[in-house]
Fold this protein.
Amino acid sequence: MAEQYGFFVDSTRCIKCYACEVACQQWHGIKADTVHRRTVQEECTGTFPDVKRRFTSLSCMHCEHPACVGVCPVGALSKRDEDGLVVVDKAKCIGCRSCALACPFDVPRYGDKKIMDKCDGCLSLGRRTDEAPRCVNTCPTRALHFGDLGEMEALAARKGGKRMGGDTAPSVYIASAETQP
């Protein structure tokens, strides 16, 4: 594999505006009440009056060792050699949902077309290699970043962020108030 691409999510900048979710749905023609390729998650910690809220925008983790790829009985999921992105070949997908069961992050979604759907880094939109996915371009606070995993690691290191853990080696770095130096 030439490179591994992934995301850096700076949760200290996310304001839960949902612009990333809306941009994804709009650009991909996804109805609002169906599949979500990207979601903003909220985490509350502490007890009153010391309550902290954190918002994190997540999509497919484009794992280095994706569990979803190996379980697909028809080979509809694959990891691209040129950038490490995990994609669904919708012409091959039979909608069996094996990938969704195997994914430790519950990412692939059963879509309204009766096949699996997930973030592809906006490759299906004809994104150029020097262009970021629509969610990244739309984020008003610049909380989302996408690119070579080494670059994402460097961005995360400057913010005290770290790589998400797991056996599949997710290609996502996250900085939060808890990880700030």
